[in-house]
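Let's do one together. I've listed all components of the complex below, 828 residues spread over two lines.
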Amino acid sequence: MRTKTMRNYILLLLLCVQGLYAQVEFMAVPSRTTIGINETLTVEFTMNEDGDNFGQPSFKGFRIESGPRQRIISALPGKREYSKIYTYVLQPVKRGALTIGQATIEIGGKVYKTLPLKITVTEAVQAGTAVGAPDIKIEQGLHYVAEVSNSNPYVNEPVTVVYKLYVHDDVSVKDWKELDSPGYNNFWSQNIAIPQRVIEKGRYNGEEYRVVTLRKDVLYPQKNGALPLEPLSLNTQVEVPTGRNDRFGNPTYNVINKVVSTAPKSITVKALPEAGKPAGFKGATGDFTFKVSPSKTSVASGEAFQLVVSVSGRGNLKLFDLPKPVVPAALEIYDPQHRESVNTTLSGMQGEIADAYTVIPQFKGKFTIKPLAFSFFDPKLGIYRTIRSNEVIIDVPTGPDATAGAYEESAGTKKPDVATDSQFRFIALSTDLKPMGRKDFLSSALFYLLLLLPLLLIPVIVVLRKRKISAEGDTAGNKVKETNRMAKQYLSEANNQIGNKEAFYIVLEKALHNFLKARLSIETSEMSKQNIKELLLSKNADGETVQGFLKVIDNCEFARYAPSSGAAMQQDYDTAVAVVTALEKQI
Amino acid sequence: MKKLLYLLLILTQAAIAQTGFERGNELYRQGKYPEAIAAYEDILSNQMESAEVYFNLGNAHFKMNRVAPAIYNYEKALLLKPGDDDIITNLKFARKMTVDESGTQRESESIFGVLNYEIWGWLAISFSCLLVLCFAGYYLTSKVILKRAGFGGMAVATVLMITCLIAAFSVRSTLNEERPAIVFSATASVKSEPVTGSAEAFALHEGTKVYVLENLDNWKKIELSGNREGWIEASAIKELK
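Okay, and this is what the predicted structure of the assembly comes out as:
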């Protein structure tokens, strides 16, 4: 008996050596060597060459829960690795040191055997420890991943985030629920509905997994810098084998809740380049076409037409303002109606946005709506582009005339519009060209000449008149002057002759005659008293003065023949002076 | 001899300009507006001008829907020929094409503004003549009534002549101080400070008439009707004088 055992050991040794030599391995691997009575034991019989006629070992003291289950791990390309595994799940039925017998296999005509296994079965251990092992498996077999299409976009360049749940073959997920919605700070986001969830095959860390896409979002970063994506958590219900079989021999499962989260990620957003940024840039990013189109170009005044400013293409269509058209004051323009027809797909927004303005011409005429410029950033090329719309010319053939109003009002007068039928005037056909920079008339020499010449005429007139008077000296004027002078001379002579009676009166009478000659332009022969009186009175002389004058003449005639005193002479002289002076004034 | 040559030069230049004007008119009638503009501009480049040249130039620009040059030339024409009906009518047409509401014309501060200064000048001259006539009446007649009337007339004429002179010079000086300009760029922003980054007070558009108050570097302080003021880039406007 002993020698037989020895021989057996030697045989086994030989077999092992041979096995090593042939590189054939056949061995039994238990999951543990010490188990509780309430626990299960998994034993795997592994061979690295394909074998036949597997001889099941004796499992004395164990009940086979399941098995043999056969599985083959296929060779990886380039590696000669092959293993065929028979797995048994055993439930101990009694305590103590138990032995699992040898299993046999025939490989290449030779029979290989495993070593017997010694298993110690103890008392029952606390429930739940059995769960420990699968939990680790779940941890490794369940991954929630956020896939970002572009982690270094420009501001307003679309980024897609796809949330995927990777499930390993070993793990079975019964249900899931999002714990919260993602909060995308500093992003404009739109969720894309997933109509039907499809389980696909995918790889995670080089291993094959089942993949479910749970959520798709399109994001437009609104500012530059490193923007974090918050981790998103998912509550899953995972089925875990309890390790026990039901009465039909099928394994039973526990459902446990497991929370999986995405790893924190961040997107580094590039700012739009400052170089070459157009003045009218309002944040549009993408690839667009731009158009300004009127619904009509010929319209009656008071009739409305639409002016549509539209941008179409792909890009952040909902995130910028359209340029506003600039129209002449004669066109009344109302606030626009905004229209959007934008689809959001995984690649971003695409479609058209438009502002429709209602415009009503107020006057007849031809009005130009200036071209509008629309600038956007093309992230693919990394440059700014500007599209200019065409100039729109609106012809208003009928209606009130444009012209009359403004200028008249501008002059400050609210005149009624008289020139309603005024037409655009034709060019002037003749002209009188003058060199530029001509001086004003106001400061020209001619102006001063014309202004001062009349004033210079004043002294000229005075001088001329004086000349004329002196030229006329020989005639009447001169004579009058002479007699006047003579009258005064005679009177002064008479003054000298006072006391000398005869001489005095002769001189006095002569003086008076001379005075009359000068004043009345009469000759001595015409000097009768009556004549003198009439003439003097006709010249507006005072009657009393005339009487006095005549009395002096009478005295002169009378005194020559009558004695007269010196006092009377003096009196006559004084009277004569007074009368002459009075007459001088009156005539 | 030198003077004679100079005179001859001016005369020939005038003759060339005259034919240029007629050539421009012919091109305008054929609808060749750009060529007509070139012909008229040619006259101006020869340092010759007239209200009609500016008027026709404005018309040609108007036909090409160029608002700012049209208004600019009409305004130029009005400076040479104030109150001309044709110019004012077409200017109104051009103003209707502007975007900004054509603001009210600046009202002159003094009552003298109702007449052109040249007219005030002629009035002063006529009162000067009247003064002399009154003096003659006073000095040459012997009739007392005529003398009195002449004296009174002299006093009135003197006062009126001096008033007209004051009016003429004050109107001209205010007019010379005034610097009207036309906005040429399609849209020009008027800022509260002459700094590129400063806030926009309001925007002006092509063809609007403004008055320049001050210059600073490449900025001009402008005034609009309604006492609106601001700074605009000098390149955005073109002054009329």
